[in-house]
């Protein structure tokens, strides 16, 4: 822990309670100057990144179709960003300490700004394979820059606000939501008024202008590398389930990128400039609900599991009615579509905000050393799994949209959060089962539960024994 941080908070360790080591911090209720700078810097990167990401939705799929790319190829173009983001996040998270959080953060923003401008020049490329290939190349480089900035920002936030990470991340999602809200209408307006190039040039230049400001605002964190690895983190059963939750959320959100604007244009006959306004329902509800859910997650840690479960169920239900699915025999209406987007935004906040602090808490329970190195691992894992879902979502969504239509594609996509909820519920039921059976004989137990439940139960036994060994060694020290 750096000397500048030690001046603002002194950790005091207490004996573990319920197999969990706890660390209490004496923090001033008022934010320090350093914390204010961190909030400003990360708010800027959230806003700029999301506004650049979301401007593609209203008009790029149609422009790409003019250049010879079908809906499946457009899905791959959206999805390749997430695939390279996934790979880059794993590398960035592992080597965050060696590279430096501040340097990684600022460099990522610089790269993203440059390639956003370059993306605006792709309309000059020849139609067909050359245009498609350049789209893939530019999006891949943009993904690497985004991975650097977002992984570093998560780590910096967790370092500066160790006891309130969900609240802080939830509050910063306001700026993520603003970027998602303003990106489509601004992009649609600039596209209608000035053509394809201007939206990317304007917003890419905005990102570049923020680079020197963040160089000044962000503090520099020093830390020593840890021996802990990604593999040690991802084999924890609880972390596996939480990663499935992250994956389902990002897949559902990414599904909308290549499909929603085309569906709205064809189904409701809206002009491109108004398509961006449809995105408002999702982005506003997400950005407004996230701070409250993050605050609840920090103050009531036991509520995190229920937030994740009910959020997943609501997300699945909304995707079934987004089309709606043909099995319901309900005609698609614009008001119903917007209502489902509003509820999806709220449910994504319920499902997503508790996950990061829950993974961090689980890592502490399993003996990981506290510090910037662990924060890099957790940030990299969170971002990587989110990116993997963001690759599968638009890629699979574009394919299903081509083959089955938007209504069936959305319903199938709703199966991801439903599967996640089923896995978590199965884990909890199996947990209760093995707790009860620990006081009874295990005879005929395999006849009472499915093979899947027993497999999860074995995972649970492994995790529980590992936590108890760590708690015992912790109490001896």
UniProtKB/TrEMBL annotation:
Superkingdom to which the source organism belongs: Eukaryota
Stored PROSITE patterns: MFS
GO molecular function, a single term: monoamine:proton antiporter activity
One Gene Ontology cellular component annotation held by this UniProt entry: membrane
Region listing for Disordered, in residue ranges: 1-23
Protein topology in the membrane: Multi-pass membrane protein
Pfam families assigned: MFS_1
Subcellular location: Membrane
Residues covered by the Major facilitator superfamily (MFS) profile domain: 38-440
Transmembrane segments: 37-60, 72-91, 103-122, 128-158, 165-186, 198-218, 230-256, 276-295, 307-328, 334-353, 374-396, 416-437, 444-462
Gene Ontology biological-process entries: serotonin uptake; spermidine transport; spermine transport
Biased composition (Basic and acidic residues): 10-23
Main location: membrane
Gene3D superfamilies cross-referenced by the UniProt entry: MFS general substrate transporter like domains
Keywords: Membrane, Transmembrane, Transmembrane helix, Transport
Name of the protein this chain belongs to: Solute carrier family 18 member B1
Organism, as annotated: Anolis carolinensis (Green anole)
